[in-house]
Amino acid sequence: MATDIASFDSPSIAREGVVGKVLTPGQLIWRRFRKHRMAVLGMIGFSLLLLFIIVGSIFITEEQANAVDLQARLTAPDAQYIMGTDTTGRDNFARIIYGGQISLVVGFTSVIISVVLGTLIGGLAGFFGGWVDSILMRFTEAMLSIPQLFLLIVLGKFIGRDIDTITVFGRAISGSVMIVIFVIGLTSWMGLSRIVRANVLSLKEMDYVAVSKSLGSSQLRTFFKHLIPNTMGVIIVATTLGLAGSILSEAYVSFLGLGIQPPTASWGNMLTSAQGFVQQGSWWMWVYPSAFIVFTILCVNLIGDGLRDAFDPRSNRHL
Predict the structure, then answer these.
(1) What is the domain range of residue 296?
(2) Verdict on whether the full-model pTM lies above 0.85
(3) Residues 23, 49: one domain?
């Protein structure tokens, strides 16, 4: 019996060594992921970052983060100000917490917009083919010609500053946040749409899709019940890696002073206020926001790398 089990293609059965124990696809994916040590390390690091941002906002209010104390301006890290203060005496520790919330909200929200658009456009193009495919793919190619950074700079300069500050869940958020979210989300779905289209083109020729149609399944049900769920591996990996790109895009646009506008803090605009003090000894103004950006991007990329291997059915490296 052991010889027969080992002869199966499923690595999960062969390596379990237990007769009759078969791992589900979800269990197999989790098993691959948790044996990818760097990915697990990235997940732990990102979880600690979320915990820091969430728990920190419970003990420190936004008013404290925006409180100006000119007598304490440019104070080096000490017992009272763990990460020092900025040019107006605001506590960098508190602003790191609330700036992280904005940076992650921008990243997550823009990625959701990007994933929804990329999945629908790419999936519909691959599923229907013909003139639908031609129109959607030409539209995708046209969108690829729009430079994201240039659009962010232009809209941030001429529109973002004119939008009033809004209050969401008790938080004062500058209107420029919405500009950044929608521009990043609406200009970063094209790569995913091509990947989803290629997957759907191959999946729709599978036998189970033909059987589903023969049993009377509608096109809409076939698309959302069979094709999209079997493309989720690609979508999840693209979402993870897209999150890193969105956070980085927000950071460098805000660094240019054309993204998130005060009083709303973000890691990017914290670097903007620090750029004039890089060579003046006030190292804490740029070291801490930079470190959090680098740490976040690193953790997200490690998670994405692990998910890519975990969702690859040909990957037996971490079994």
Answers:
(1) 44-310
(2) no
(3) no
Longest alpha-carbon distance in the chain: 79
| Residue 237: per-residue pLDDT | 82
Q: Which residues of the chain have pLDDT under 70?
A: 1-21, 156-175, 257-259, 261-263, 279, 313-319
At 167, give phi and psi (nearest 5°).
-110, 120
The answer to whether the beta carbons of residues 179 and 165 sit under 8 Å apart is: no
Within this chain, do residues 130 and 57 fall inside the same structural domain, yes or no? yes
Does residue 270 lie in a domain region? yes
pLDDT at position 6: 39
Quote the pLDDT of residue 210.
78
Same domain, 26 and 94: no
Residue 266 lies in a domain: yes
Does residue 39 contact residue 302 with C-beta atoms inside 8 Å? yes
For the chain, what is the radius of gyration of the CA atoms? 24
pLDDT at residue 160, as a whole number: 59
- Give pLDDT, residue 165: 64
Please state the domain count of the chain.
2
- Domain membership of residue 318 (yes or no) is no
Do 6 and 30 lie in a common domain?
A: yes
Shared domain for 1 and 98, answered yes or no, is no
Residue-wise pLDDT for 146-156, tens only, equals 887 777 777 76
**Are 3 and 65 contained in the same domain?**
no
Residues, the chain, total? 319
